[in-house]
Amino acid sequence: MNKEEILEKSREEKKDEGREFVFHKGRKSGVTGMLILFVILAVFNLYNNHLETTYALVTMFFGYLGSESMGIYTLTHKKIDLLKTVIGCIVCIAFLVLYLNGVTN
C-alpha cells in the first residue's frame, strides 16, 4: 500500500482521531473523579456505620467496572478483560444482594 491508499482508507472509516482522543481523555478524568468520590463516600459511610449506603456505592462502582470491562473484552478478547468483567459482575451482584437485604429488613 502506498501513502495515498492508506489516507483514502482512513478517510473512508470516518473516524476523527482528535475527537476520539478528547472523549478518551474526558472518560479517564470522569472515572478518576468518580473513584475519588467513591472512596470519600465509602470511608465516610463506614465511619458513620451506614452499611446500606456503602453497599449501594460498591454495587454501582463494580457494576460500572464490569460493564466497562465487558465492552473492552468484546473488542480485545484479552483474558484479563474477561477476568475483570467476571469479577466486577460477581462483586456487583453480591453487594446488590446485601443492599437489597439491608433495605428490606
TrEMBL record:
* Keywords attached to this entry: Membrane, Transmembrane, Transmembrane helix
Q: Where are the transmembrane segments?
A: 29-47, 53-75, 82-100
Which Pfam family, giving just one, matches this sequence? DUF6442
What highest taxon heads this organism's lineage? Bacteria
- Specify the protein name: DUF4181 domain-containing protein
